[in-house]
Amino acid sequence: MIGTLFRHEVRMLFRDRRTVLIAVVAPLVLFPLFILASNWVEARESTRLESQTYEIAVTGPRAAWAEEIVDAAHALEAGAPEPSVADGDPAGPAARTGEVDRGSDEEETIAPAAFLRLSAPAPDSLLAAGALHVVVVGREAVPDDSLAPGTAVLELRYRADSDFSRNARERLQERILAVRSAMRDSVFLGAGFPVRLGEVAVFEAENLAGEGREGGSLLGGLLVPFLILLMLSGGSIVAADSISGEKERGTLETLLTTATSRRDIVFAKLGAIMAVGLAAGVINVVNVGVYIGLGVLDLPDNLRIAVGIDTLLVLLLMVLPLVAMVAAALLLLSGLANSYKEYQIYFLPLFLVFLLPSFAAFLPGIELRSAIVLVPVAGISVATRALLMGEGHLLWGAAALASTGAAAWLLLRRTEAALSNERLITSVEMDEAEFRGGAALFPRHVLRWFVGFWVLLFVTSLWFAEELGLHGQILFNVVGIFLGGSVLLIRRYGLDVRETLQLHRPHWRAWPAAVVGAPSLLVLAIGLGELVNTYLFPVPESMLEAFGRSLTEGLATWEFVLLLSLLPGILEEVAFRGVLLSGLRKQMRRTWMAVAVSALVFGVFHVSLFRIIPTGFLGVVLALVVLRTGSIFPAMLWHFLNNFLATVPVEQGWISLEATQGVPVAWYGVALVGAAVSWLLMCPRPGQLEPAPGGRPARTATPTGAPERDRAGLAGR
Amino acid sequence: MTDQPTVLVKDLRKTFYDESRGEVHAVDGVTFACHPGEVFGLLGANGAGKTTTLRMLSTVLRPTGGTATLMGRDVVGEPAAVRRSLGFYSASTALYPRLTARETIEFFTRINGYPGDLVPARVDDLVRRFGIAEYENGRVGKLSSGMKQKVSIARTVAHDPPVLIFDEPTVGLDVMNALEMVKVIRELKAEGKTILFSSHIMSEVEKLCDRIGIVHRGRLLALGTLDELRQETGQHYLEDAFLDYVKRAEGIEGAAELGPAGALEGAEGDPLGTAP
Questions:
Q1: Which of residues 237-276 of A touch B (CB under 8 A)?
Q2: For the residues A62-87, what does the mean pLDDT come to?
Q3: Where does A540-606 show beta strands of DSSP type E?
Q4: Closest-CA distance of chain A to residue B80, Å
């Protein structure tokens, strides 16, 4: 069925001449035209600037002296290297060009230019009128110049808003500087200082990178933006047509009342968009190749690289999730927009959102082995460049692939939900949650709020780290953001505090469970960290050390207990296992997803990437503790113990830092047993409802129980 | 007509939320059943809730409450199965202008799950039956409205579904095309299909429908054969009977606080239509 749908989409597409023209044919002609035109303009511009005769005037109290220098500068031969002074040769005055010493000296040559010196009574006004290009003023230093009185000054006046004036100034200045250095040398020589070239450092730059690497670096960096551009321009037309267009033509309802599933429809449309985007990409690459082969276009030298067929295949594999993600985003946009017009309004921001990260490879100092692989699009951009430079890495490349692939998948899921949205068919303005607002809307907004909190936390740590100091920062995060944010959300959405925060008295066995569990899981977390570190993402040692130092420096023991253990133990639980988890559980289909997402958010809040895995692990554990005991209090105790045990013993010198890194294997066995005992000790609190104490939103209240089944059906939220 | 209902609607409800109008009960507890070989008509003014009811049956809208099944499949639980046994025709279900008539019919036959190897023969049948052969290779976008209507009907019945929904099918059609539509619906009825038909045009409903449900403000005010409705209201014309029911409902609505709405009595007589 999906095959039929896909063929249908492609057929519809090719019957729309506009699509074929704009998505495929237009770039086919436009890209080479663009390159040709820019080459032509560049060539024309340089000949125009070269063939121009620049008109200059000399004025000022020391005009005669200035005229002499200008004439000397004018007399310099175009294309000749700067005049230099040969060994021991007492060179004459400025106007003489010194002996030419090609090859070993400066490679900078003087650009050809013709100057015409005019004598004019009021040169400045002529310059302003555009009749002159440069005015040279010869004068004595004035106090403003902060030079010794009596120093001769040569001032070049020009107009920056005129191409010619600017160019004349550059050329003239270049020449005058050359004349000046020759003059200086001759003065030195005259005063008896021997000036030898051998004693003056010669500047040379040599590129050690092979041509292939350089080309790979440039091409690899350009590839992803180019591809995204093609996808966005070609795919966009198809996407706009595929849902917004069907909506406007009224065929969407016809399609939705057939036996096809929403997913098949989404995938078929995605396939069509990808096919057009990829086809446009391939055709354009081939096209440029043909033009180059025909000799119509010239590829810059630094883009010439040889790529093996295996690299090409890997490249295609890398690019596929990217293409899928762009296509999915376009399709989602099309599904959310109510009309073509709305689609166009949203398109520009989307365009930027994709294009900006695609230039990630050009960021200075960005490497594949960094957190950038986790950013969709940017990761692929960096990975393709690394691949073309011959620096591809299987695991990091796969991580980049996975992050973009996951983003594409999420977008597709959202599109599928958008197709089930009743607003596609009816003119309904709101759904129930929006209408009722308050607590019903909270689960939908909770993640957005936490993104906002994170930005606040991040920006504060970035801008005010110095002002706040470590104490201030911890207090701001924990009290200001976590507690303040929780209170804000509870008040704003009118949430039931007891249910949201799970403020219930747990079964007494939950307490020993936390006491046994916290140290056990801490040991297991260390083990997990070791495993990840060894086999997945090696974290630079220096990074870990720096992190450890910055956290512990200058804190007293009571501060460790209060600021790093007690406060986070209580307030982070309120925010993450209270507000966030309760909201996510109502929003997410499955409890494990809520647990996973809350843990991920918890990890992300501990800003450094290298702490995501251990903190994420802790986040999962604490969420499970809350779910199993039906109370937040054991999780608070657990969190406190975890932080306390992770910092204080090392700080106090009870355990050396090294000991925490090489835990004996037997400990892991003990820890596993401890974890199991803890799990068994935890049991539902008296009167805890199974499975979800918070319950689903008000919809559950319908008499028929339909919402229980709506998961399987067409329901979208 | 057998006793086994093909469409079963129980206490179906749909609430919309709207900034300006607030909570709107578009469908407010509707119950009825339909049987093979029967044309069941929903009669009501614009905005009475006919289309919303039928859209819930076609799984495009999700009920807020109550249940609805088609051929024993629940519209919420098994939407794809429901759509497989359903053909949905309405004035708002357009065709793809860039496909030819034949391609359109073929496409809808396939995506509704008709066995692949039988599709060409089925398309030939449909083209012949609805007299599309002359223009089967013409782009739909260039066909006249009458031609388009035929293609639309053909695509609705393409996969030979047991249940057919015609939501205001004659809206915007000229007399000849409207008559053609009525003729097709009669033929389909003769084939033993279950047909749900909605309209605000009394004469059509009078001519076509075996049983009639009168819908007003999301509620089913009355349900029965034309004769039953006439008897109950003492009116000869359906139009008068309709007005009678609406007046009664509005009158009761005014005194709604006094007790349970008596206006639904008409509908409670035999809401599931199980009597022969």
A1: 249-251, 253-254, 256-261
A2: 68
A3: none
A4: 5
Nearest to B113 among A254, A259, A713 (CB): A259
The arithmetic mean of pLDDT across residues A14-27, rounded, is 74
Give the highest mean pLDDT range of A635-639, B232-236, B267-271: A635-639
Q: Determine whether the interchain pair B58/A257 forms a contact, defined as Cβ–Cβ distance below 8 Å.
A: yes
The residue that leads in pLDDT, A564 or A25, is A564
Q: Do A713 and B75 touch (CB under 8 A)?
A: yes
What does the alpha-carbon distance between residue A175 and residue A655 come to, in Å, rounded to a whole number? 71
What pLDDT was estimated at residue B190?
Answer: 93
Sheet containing A134-140, strands listed edge to edge, beginning at the edge strand earlier in sequence: A114-118, A53-59, A134-140, A152-157
Higher pLDDT, A660 or A5: A5
Query: Per-residue confidence at A697, pLDDT binned at 50, 70, 90?
Result: very low
Q: What is the mean pLDDT of chain A?
A: 77
Q: Which residues of A touch B148 (CB under 8 A)?
A: none
Could you tell me which residue, B276 or A242, shows the higher pLDDT? Answer: A242
Distance from CA of A22 to the nearest CA of B (A): 18
Residues of A in contact with B112 (CB under 8 A): 258-260
Between B230 and A290, the higher pLDDT residue: B230
DSSP letter at A77 equals P
Q: How far is CA A162 from the centre of its chain?
A: 37
A275: nearest Cα among A4, A2, A9: A9
Residues 78-97 on B with a CB inside 8 Å of A are 78-80, 83-84, 86, 88, 90, 92-97
Contact state of A713 with B79 under an 8 Å Cβ cutoff? yes
Cα B82–Cα B88–Cα B90 angle in degrees, nearest 5:
150
3-state SS, residue A302: helix
Can you give the pTM of this predicted structure? 0.67
Residues A673-697: what's their mean pLDDT? 68
Least confident range of A676-690, B23-37, B166-180 = A676-690
Backbone φ, ψ for residue A568 (5° rounding): -60, -40
Give the N- to C-terminal CA distance of chain A in Å, as an integer: 26
Cβ neighbours of residue A321 under 8 Å, at least 6 residues apart? Answer: A380, A401, A404, A405, A408
Q: What is the ipTM of this complex?
A: 0.86
Nearest to A474 by CA among A370, A567, A599, A596: A567
CB contact at 8 A, A67 and A127:
no
What is the per-residue burial (b if ≥16 Cβ within 10 Å, else e) of A441-458?
bbbbbbbebbeebeebbe
Between CA A651 and CA A90 the distance in angstroms is 73
Q: Are strands B22-34 and B7-18 parallel, antiparallel or unpaired?
A: antiparallel
**For residue A23, is pLDDT > 80?**
no
User: Given an 8 Å threshold on Cβ–Cβ distance, is A429 in contact with B17?
Assistant: yes
Mutation to test the A interface, candidates B56, B60, B119, most A Cβ within 10 Å: B60
Reported as a pLDDT band with limits 50, 70 and 90, residue A612 is: confident
State how far residue A233 is from chain B, nearest Cα, in angstroms. Answer: 22
Handedness of CA A237, A240, A242, A246 (dihedral sign): negative
Give CA–CA dist B154/B104, Å, rounded: 9
B128–chain A nearest CA distance, Å: 23
Q: Which pLDDT score is estimated for A42?
A: 75
Cα A514 to Cα A509, A572, A577, A594, B32: the distances in Å are 9, 17, 15, 22, 58
Q: How many CB atoms lie within 10 A of CB A424?
A: 20
Alpha carbons A420 and A714: distance in angstroms, whole number: 6
**Which residue type does A294 have?**
L
Q: Which of A104-113, A299-308, B195-204 has the highest mean pLDDT?
A: B195-204
Query: Does residue A717 register a pLDDT over 50?
Result: no
Type of residue at B152: S
